[in-house]
Amino acid sequence: MSWAEIGALVIGGLVAGVINTLAGGGSMLTVPLLVVMGLPGPVANATNRIGVLVQNLTSTVAFRAQGVHSIRDAAPILVPAAIGAVLGATIVARIPAEIFERLFGLLMLIVLVPVLRRSKPRQHADPPSAPRPRWLEALIHFGIGIYGGAVQIGVGILFLFAQSLAGMNLVRANSIKVLVVLCFTTFALPVFIVSDLIVWPTALILAVGFALGGALGARLAVRGGDRLIRPILAIAVVALAGRMLGLY
Description:
This protein is mainly α. The chain has one domain (about 5-115, about 135-245). It is about 75% helix and about 0% strand. The chain contains nine helices and no strands. Mean pLDDT is about 80; it is low at about 120-130.
């Protein structure tokens, strides 16, 4: 591996780590980068998971260091997301990949509207919105876990959608997201390791960039708040939807 390739992996991981922490979809950069460097698609998808794991670990630590704690909020959805991720990593979907990607791209563009809309301040007399039933929360994150275990790219955006539509601000939603993705990636990763799909030298170099990007992204999220996260989320969603719809 040349120094240029090492530099490209570190820089690509750094940028992807920031994007993943602030919104999601950073793997749209790193997976194609790995393919360009000669890795087959399934191997690139698996190798990228090491960086994703490290990035979410450093992001979780960075959020916690800045006083944003998410363990209590994340706990109810960790198990269904982890189970879904293992299933997603081990089973083959019945829906053809091309049709699935088109439907997913359209769905994300539709859901983007309520997520990015600024909520109006509530009057004191208004009753607080009722939380989603636990079974529904578990089902939603079980489904997201299946997608994350199988595809990974854009799973952070789905988590942000789920939390934002429940009324949570994007900073806290991001802190929950990185913890949950860390958990389910830990459970899904052994499937790829046992299948011998990970190129370890490449994965570890990429993980260095991901680690730096995860820590930086968490700091930017806390300091910039929703005002910074919303436009980045919008760009990430449009970019991922365009890719899913086959526009580029």
